Structure of Cytochrome P450 CYP749A22-like:
Amino acid sequence: MIPAVVASVETMLEKWKSKEGKEMEVFQEFRLLTSEVISRTAFGSSYLEGEKIFDMLMKLTVISCRNIYKAKIPISGKFWKSADEIESDKIAKMIHDSVMKIVKKRDDKVVTGEADNFGRDFLGLLVNVYHEADEKNRHSIQDLVDECKTFYFSGQETVNSLLAWATVLLAIHSDWQDKARAEVIEVFDTQNSDSEGMAKLNTVSKLYKFRSLKTNSDHLYCLLDFFFSKRLP
C-alpha cells in the first residue's frame, strides 16, 4: 500500500510545482489524491477503472445530498421519476456494470491460467468471496458493489478532511511544520517512506490525534510524511 501512496503523492507534488505563486483549491487536490490512493489500494492494477467507479460514486452522492430533504409521495416512484432519480438509476447501473467488467477480467485471467488468483488487493478479496463454494458465505455482485461504496466513503472523506485540517494547522503553526520536516528528513533522508520508519515519527504522531481511526492511520501517516518534507506556502 505504501508504494501506491508514495506514487500518488509524488505525482501531486510535481503538479503543484507548476502552480507556484498561484492560488489553488487544496481541499479539491486532497480529494483527488485520496481518491487515487484508495483506487490503487482497492483495485490494484485496475486502479484506473477504480477511479472511474469512484467518480461515479461521487456524482451519486451529490445527487443524494441534493434530494435528501425533499418530500416524496409514497408509490409515486412507480409512475413518475424526477430527472435526478433517472440520473441516479443510470449511474448506479454504470457502477454495477463497471464492477462486473473488472470481475470478469479477473475471472478470465484465472480461467486461462494467466493468473493463479483473483488479486491480492481489496477487490481481489471480494472476488474470492464472490466465488465462495459455501453458498451461505458467498457474496452477490451487489454485495461487491456495496462493499466498494463503503470502502470509498469511509476512507476518502475521513482522510481528506484530516489532511485539510492538518494543512491548516501547519500553515498557522510554522514551527511545528519545521519540526515535522526536520524529523522526516532525519528518519528517511532522501529515501521513500516505509512502515518501519513511520513508526519513528514522534512529532508527526502528535499531529495526528485521531488514533481511534486505525483504518486510515497508515494512509495519513504516509501522506503527511511527504507533505512535511516540503515547505507549505
Notes: The CA atoms of residues 2 and 122 lie 15 Å apart. The chain has one domain: 2-15+25-228. DSSP finds ten helices and no strands in the chain.
